[in-house]
Amino acid sequence: MPHFSFVSLPEELLLKILKSLEYSSVLNSAVTCRRLNTIIVNSIALQYKVQLAACGMRDGADSDLSLPERLERLKQLSMKPPGESSPGRSTAHFSILSDNPLLCWCQEAFLSFARTANYPQNRQDTSYSDYRLDYEEWKSGIGIS
Amino acid sequence: MPTIVSVDDSTVPGEGSSRLLLLVSSDNKHIVVEEDIMSRSRFISKQVEGFEATSQRHAILLPFSSFVLNKVIEYCSHYRGYYLLEDDPDAAPPGRSPVREWDQEFLDVDRNMLLRIIKAAHYLEIKSLVGSCARAIADMIRGKTTEEMREILGVENDFTPEEEHSPSSKCTG
To answer: Model-level pTM greater than 0.80?
Structure first.
């Protein structure tokens, strides 16, 4: 039987598969190849899933707000400047200087996650590839698979 | 759209209470199956509705191999007569649920086959099978690193080295 390529599946199917993943696997999927990256970056539902985890929150009860509205609120929450964050949350503030829109959202999500989970401050300013390695190392160090 | 061709009645054996359908795979294998079994497929159901307007029997030509088609028929046969929420067009979409035990065994095939089954299920509009396949594929890559994912899924890294390694983020506060 000839080889069948995963990324040749229809977008609807790839999205369904990605939606079955938890946020950290969604993030890893986003940097496997361009096709998955584009699908993830363009999916409000997947962005919401990752942003929710990055903010250390869970989806609440039914809301009148649409998914894009909820995502926007989450983004506003995570971008609050120092001094305006909720009690108990990190007050570090990041700006993303990437000129690569493909990876920008993934980077933001990684940074956001690290900030929420108190990733060491002195290692937050680093290249993306180093950051990914650090992220994996840091995750296994504190027992997150 | 499938190609529909007229067939001689003698090619379709008649037995049982359910009508019989003739499915023709891309490798030109003719598979006779009871309509009840395939009623889980919205695609087939819509085709059959179309047949009722004419007196001729028809064959449905499908764009996947008999090997894949037989797997799909096996799935539909197993759940014949069962109500599955995912296949109910009037039901609200179900939330995330684990792969059913039988499905897990049924989908214990290589990646290539799994991808072909999900594509066939998508074409035939069998939502429950699409859902089970999607969860099975997700389970294969859950918790894996990017490199491991590429290996498992056979995906090539098509980012440029600049995209992968450019310093790009900065802490400003």
So the answer is: no
All domains of chain B in start order, with CATH: 4-155 (3.30.710.10)
Residue A120 CB-density burial (10 A; 0-12 exposed, 13-18 middle, 19+ buried): exposed
Q: Alpha helix locations (H) across A22-121?
A: 23-30, 34-42, 44-54, 67-78, 101-116
Q: Is B53 on the interface with A (CB under 8 A)?
A: no
Q: Which residues of chain A lie closer than 8 angstroms to B149, CB-CB? A: 25, 28-29, 32
Q: Which residues of B touch A25 (CB under 8 A)?
A: 138, 141-144, 149
A6 closest CB neighbour out of B115, B122, B166: B115
Q: Select from A34, A37, A70, A39 the least CA-distant residue to A55.
A: A70
> Is residue A49 over pLDDT 90?
no
Closest alpha carbon to A118 in A98, A144, A97? A144
Distance, CA of B114 to CA of A79 (rounded, Å): 41
**Complex ipTM above 0.90?**
no
Collapsing DSSP to helix, strand or coil, B163 comes out as helix
- Looking at the complex, does the CB of residue B122 fall below 8 Å from at least one CB of chain A? yes
DSSP letter, residue A119: -
SS3 B21: strand
